[in-house]
Amino acid sequence: xRRGGTEMGVLNTRVLIEGTAQGPVLKLSEDISLxxxxxxxxxxxxxxxxxxxxRRISGKILAMHRSIGSSSGSSILLELxxxxxxxxxxxLIEADFIITLGVLVAREMGLGEIPVVQIEESVYPLLxxxxxxxxxxxxxxxx
Amino acid sequence: xxxxxxDQEMLEGKCGEAVALAMRIISDMGRIQGxxxxxxxxxxxxxxxxxxxxxxxxxxxxxxxxxGRVAVPSSLNVGALDLQHxxxxxxxxxxxxxxxxxxxxxxxxxxxxxxTCAPYQAGYRPKKGEDIAWAESNAIVFAxxxxxxxxxxxxxxxxxxxxxxxxxxxxxxxxxKNRYATLCIDTSQISGQLxxxxxxxxVFGSWLGRITNGEVAVIKGFPTDVNDDQLKSLGASAAxxxxxxxxxxxxxxxxxxxxxxxxxxxxxxREISLSLDELIHERDRMSTVATKQLDVVALxxxxxxxxxxxxxxxxxxxxxxxxxxxxxxxxxxxxxxxVLDWLxxxxxxxxxxIIDTCVVVTPILKQSSGVLMTNSGKFAHYSPxxxxxxxxxxxxxxxxxxxxxxxxxxxxxxxx
Lengths: 143, 416
Fold this sequence. Notes:
heterodimer; A: 143 residues; alpha/beta; Glucose Oxidase, domain 1; two-stranded antiparallel sheet; 9 strands; globular; disordered N terminus; B: 416 residues; 38% helix
């Protein structure tokens, strides 16, 4: 994996919630509040001030530092997963309560299981455009 | 993570299905967060009662079916309905029924029907050092910062799981060492005159939210008589533009008799001296249009307090609004307004009250688009996406004058 001249190899992450995923990575350039920031039905980023306004998180591995804003972010994530519009997996820098909780409750309610992994801030800029997340948290670049 | 005998019993279902589910989620969360143990809490504030879709209703009703009952006093956040004035809410019938079912489920779990995002102004004021599990971003930051109670940024569902078990993972802001500031903000470049303006606090909060990266800040140079409503405005704004869960104000908030104590006598990791230019840039960023045209004024995020009503009536001074002026508040304030016999004054001024809920969490505005003016950093942040209105930010006086004039009126003298 080569990004900006840095050899990353395969990236090891800390597994927060176990699972596997493969797909394009939507790397947020600014953190977001899922409530008020993402539409729970379409999965579109609706925060008009967000640089990635209009993108959808459905079908992507969502990468972000941490959530900002509302406690209702967990509810929005659960509702997205209920409608099969959730992300394929989530990469976080901080083990965010609000994000991980939505995924835990979805699993508890049988609405789907997605992996959540934690990375160091320094490797965030090196995340590939498409990746696979393994059961052990290994992150590999996909072509 | 080590569970106590009682925690283990809850997990194994000895206290019922609902408590077992709650403990599964809490112990999973504890492992995710790297907790070594759980600790007991003295209260909870529950945000899960606000309707976002069927999944939340299913979850809450599953807890009711599992014979759940809160173990600690648990106040409720806003719902999606004004229960006393149901016609004011423009939810389709199906969603209205679901929203009602959700609110009923949380009451059935033993929560207190406070229906407010400002529980700390409705008599729920945990003491310094108390561990609590609060959700609702503005209430979290107020509890930690202004009251000195200890809570993490709990999300919907975690709040009720903590309430049902009375337990939380011992991590984050429950630990005294994580409550110290590492970021130091110097506001000495900002004039004392501007610091008397209510709008300063919303703008400062919005700026603070955007520049912090999960750090706790200590703010230097605030007047020592900064009041609850100003700190409420600051916190709500910072918890909308950012993920702020706690701040200190040197010489004001309970864990910051001075900046050195708030910093635990360590050098700050980052020090920022706020300039007026940066602050004005932030203020302008909070508005999305610069037109004079205005359709509606919305106040009360977080819920308007009695003192804020007093100030608004003083500013209106008998004048009547020519466009809708909506004020969102809680029943705790309505009962005080009744005692003071202010409701006729409010009606005469043309103010429309929304109780138990607010304009960004459920459809209330008559128009599907337009221009909304507010003095709330939280409304300014969320209105464009949730109400599809353009936003104009202004002081409370600007909002009152604009509602009377029917167009945007601003007095920015305090800013220069």
